[in-house]
Amino acid sequence: MPDDVQVAMLRPRTPAPTPEPELPPAPAADSGIDGSAYATLSRAAERGQLARADRLRLEGVDRGAADYSRSRALLVMDAQRRDDAKAEGRYLQELMIVPENRYNPVFLSDLARWQVNEGRYDAARSSAREAEQQWARIPSAIMFAKKAEIYRAQAAAAQGLFNESGGDVARLDEAIDAWRRYEAHVAARSRDDLAVTARDAVASLEDIRERLK
């Protein structure tokens, strides 16, 4: 069996904050948190600086409230910025309770990234594929960044599945193709800082391909 290629942790892009995706303004929803309060909470979440009292306030938004998804999106963002994977996973799970959120490509890309980091590669691949199928719903302002995250999650998931396969050549080829796809996407915007990750992964995987011949 060839040596495994380490699957790098996938981090949210910083310092650029993640815009709140496809969520309508929440004017005085039945949770009692008005639009002005949400604006303040959003700024804190972007920095990973929600106070404990603020997190509890958002956690208290009922599933039936109009702003339930909005509250969970901010909690996910805050947990990402704080590198709190356990909290991020819990809030993502709560976010996906809402049926329409399971088809939101922004939420799905966040879920896929978390699943990769947790070593749940098969689930990550499924989430990233669903996110790609829904790509037209991604706001134009974050289209490039989110598609990059989706492609990178697909590549990392494919690499993880190869590592678990014990040397399956089909899995290896899938991982190489996925990393090349990610590289082509980021290179189109001259993002060599991102493309280098793909090139390094492809080089390592192709070296394994040679040794499997």
Salient structural properties:
elongated; mainly alpha; 0% strand; 213 residues
Report on the architecture of this protein.
The protein is mainly α and 213 residues long. 63% of the residues lie in helices and 0% in strands. The protein is built from nine helices and no strands. It has helices spanning 35-46, 52-59, 68-81, 85-95, 105-117, 121-133, 143-165, 169-187, 192-212. Helix 5 runs antiparallel to helix 6 (121-133), helix 6 packs antiparallel against helix 7 and helix 7 packs antiparallel against helix 8 (169-187).
Q: Any chance you could write out the topology, listing elements then pairs?
A:
Elements: H1 35-46, H2 52-59, H3 68-81, H4 85-95, H5 105-117, H6 121-133, H7 143-165, H8 169-187, H9 192-212
Helix pairs in contact: 1-3, 3-4, 4-5, 5-6, 5-7, 6-7, 7-8, 8-9
Distance between the termini: 12 Å
Number of strands: 0
User: How is the main sheet built?
Assistant: none
What are the segments in which pLDDT stays under 50 over at least 5 consecutive residues?
A: 13-29
Give the percentage of residues in beta strands: under 5%
- Determine the mean pLDDT: 89
In short:
The chain is mainly α and 213 residues long. It is built from 9 helices and no strands.
